[in-house]
Amino acid sequence: MENNNIEEALFQLLNTANDMYGDAVEKIWFYDGDLCPCCNKRKIDALVMGEESALSVNGFMYHDLSTLIGYFLCSYCVTNLFAKGDKQKDLYQNLEENLKKSYHEHLKSEAS
Fold first, then answer.
1. Could you read off the pLDDT of 47-68 as tens digits, one per residue?
2. Are 32 and 43 in contact (CB under 8 A)?
3. Whole-model pTM?
4. Region class of 103: left (phi > 0), else alpha (psi between -120 and 50), else beta
């Protein structure tokens, strides 16, 4: 995916979040780690859909700190999160906890 397309997708995500949350969003942070924030095992990669490929651009509203966190996922986790079954709730909880932890580490690094 070209950088222009990624940038456009991020702006679209932020505009949608602004429409949804309005004044509740005081800060925006994008998770930029190399590993998927859901599994913390695999590198973030594109999901292959036929001849096309796509990145999964997502947002998580961290209400406690009024922060919108943007992130990409690896193709494996994207597939599992959208699959039918009972494990999606656990996957989302794990993802949210990993994003919160990463955000707190980011805040600590900014403070030092």
1. 888 898 888 888 899 999 999 9
2. no
3. 0.85
4. alpha
